[in-house]
Amino acid sequence: MPPSGDETEVTDGHCKCSSGDGGKDRACPHCRRSALPSSSSSCSLFSFESYPVKDYSKLCRVFTASVKGFSIGAGLKGGLSLFAILARLRRRRLLTSARKAEMASSGEDVILAIKETLRYGLFLGTFAGTFVSVDETIAALGGHRRHFRTAKWRALLAGAIAGPSMLLTGLNTEHTSLAVYILMRAAVLASRCGIKSRRFGGICKPLTWAHGDIFLMCLSSSQILSAYILKQDSLPSSYKSFLNKHGGKDAVMLQAVKEIASGMPFSNLKAVEKYYKTTGVDIELDPQMKVPCSIIHGNQSCGGHFLSFLLQAYKRALPVYLPVYLIPALIVHRQGLSKRPYTILGKGLLGTARSSLFLSVYCSSAWMSTCFLFRLLRSCNVPMVAMGTLPTGLALAIEKKSRRIEISLYCLARAIESFFTCMADVGYLPQLKKVRRADVVIFSISTAIIMHCYAIERDVFRSKYRNVLDWVFGVPLPPSDATPRKICR
User: Fewer CB within 10 A of the terminal residue: the chain, N end or C end?
Assistant: First the structure.
């Protein structure tokens, strides 16, 4: 029997609406679906447009998804590795010969980059291939009659089964930050589905707050920047390196601020004075000080330090965002560059300037707000560091609205990881250290939710993400659109 509400009769695989010459009515759901034996539409191997293909092979869909997944994984990781190698080469030129000997050779960097590129390519290629394989297998086992019923849950199961492919990046390499970030993305998609739902719409209504992204950024900043000053070991090494560069303070200065905030005696205050002398500032620090302003900015006032630090931070931020905006413009809009180059490049430069301003204000306001709170209360302790770094997240308002949620979720993932690491280190969560490869479990749950939303509620995705998923996996068919059953005479 055809689905409820659809009385079109199917005979010998053809609708009665079909013309005698074999033509099909594109408005008829049976004619439209009869050309799609697979559980989704297809796309050519490297074409960026998805479209239905007649007699499309399920095995070919698996192969295509695997190749495209590999190309995305290898392309992203390869690009990041290339920039890392170039940055290391530039840094190597500025170092002395003794420091150069301590660094890995350029050949070792290239070999490591190739290995990492292949691992991430295999990871995403296997994930895509596994998801499509499970999806097609369940659809085939369910049969044409139950095809629309399995569509409601098979993407959930396929996403969960494909999750452990993360292990291909390295059996001993944990990706907690990535897993938590993907979990945050899954939570956002689930909340959007909940907002649309009649059952959960009322519960999820607070999630529609227009400035929720800035609120999340403030919470994340409090944890991340507190950890940057007080416990850097709780942060991922790459993110710690990023903060040390853009935080703009030497390690001896951070150690001194940590000691005064923790109520510990100064261990090496002379090192801070020596550091300032190398910059041309002669200062004598008081071991009995109550606030660390003189440690943070020497003889400068808090306001003067904010302005000078802002200019320095902006210069450091520009090289970070320039490739972020210009490289996608050259790749994604390569055809439009010949027609309207000034418009596209102008938007890229404007975005670079805007994002650089955000990062520089973010870093500058972190020191400004903490200094203000320390001077206001004439004291410095751990809770005050957390409170002082909380308003820093307001700098996110400078960014473009479409980028705010991305940045806030990225920072929230690192804040959550840092928070639980701190809790485990102080003994509040001792069982957390015993859990092995929790990142794989979190990632599998997250991908199950994301792929389920992709198959059932496609409109909760932003167009750019949906287009990428469509390119890799093919456009999912509506769950209510069942394959017609052939009527035997």
Answer: C
